[in-house]
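It would be a great kindness if you could assist me with a short task in structural biology. A protein sequence and the structure tokens that stand for its backbone fold form the material at issue. I should value your view on which stretches of the chain appear to form regular backbone elements. The record follows directly beneath this note.
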Amino acid sequence: FKSLLLLLSKQTIHCILTIIMGAWTQLFPPSPHFTEVQTPSLAGKVFIVTGGNSGVGFELAKILYSKGGNVYVAGRSATKIATAIEEIKAEAAKTASSTAGQLNSLIIDLGNLFTIAPCVSDFLAKESRLDVLFNNAGVSRQPPGRVTTQGHEIHMGTNCLGPYLLTKLLLPILTKTAESAPKNSVRVVFTSSGIIDLAGPPGGVSFAELEPGKHSGDMNRNYSGSKAGNWFLASEFDRRYAKDGIAAVVQNPGTLRTPGWNGTPWLMRAMMAPIFQPPKMGAYTELWAGLSPDIKSGDGQKFIIPWGRWNTTPKKEHLASLKSKKEGGTGLAVEFFDYCEAQTKEFAAR
């Protein structure tokens, strides 16, 4: 072991320690400091929470509704959404401090690009503003070989292409809302994961592995690539649309006891049990990303970690990916944004 350490450069050792410490602080975060208590009245504000019928999204929708927000719960199943809405209403009725808002249903399947435009049309037929889009929904730990309706690798298609198109089609109403809303309050929140520091292709995304028939056989690598992609999208949306008053950020909600771990071998779940946190804790991370006054346009290249704070030790290769080649980076985020546009543009017509 000593011989191995001698062979490693100081730079390599520092890099390894940075990764370990970065993972440690995300696995064992300090107490949340932005919860229901710090959340102001949300009366008059409109929110979309994808995946709002279960897990973190469900807990987030509960908080937004309890503060008077008009919340659209977006998901694939009308039945599951209806059940979630009834549960939220029933729980709020028992809470004296709750100021009930509104709860609505939106049908969307992020793994099928044909469903995105109709979902947006449905929303625009009912609302004239949108304050925060929470791109919360996603898939994880899917077996290699699984693809979306359009044939994209399941993680990349569902976690990146679907949210990209949804965000793009909602830009006009977000921009309109920003014209009269307080500065930096209109936001798009993307969802990443701490796995990007532990696994994944160099730089975050491998375009070669996005080609049909060339998807990686490692589900963790595929998932990590999609979660790095979420950061790239947040960074590019923020850079391109900050001028319109829209702030886009990315967050890792935390290591949580959610349906995303279903199907994981029982031994791994048993090993992870001591560090699993309830979904509500992840909702606090997203709440900070969506509502904290500490967030502003230009924060898209930063990374939010549990339970609402900035990651001070991001991987340098990811930071390089976020920068254009003119800025001295690799330009990977720009290239990925353009890739998402190319793959989804034919599905943009409403």
In short: The CA atoms of residues 21 and 234 lie 24 Å apart. The two ends are 61 Å apart (CA to CA). The mean pLDDT is 91.
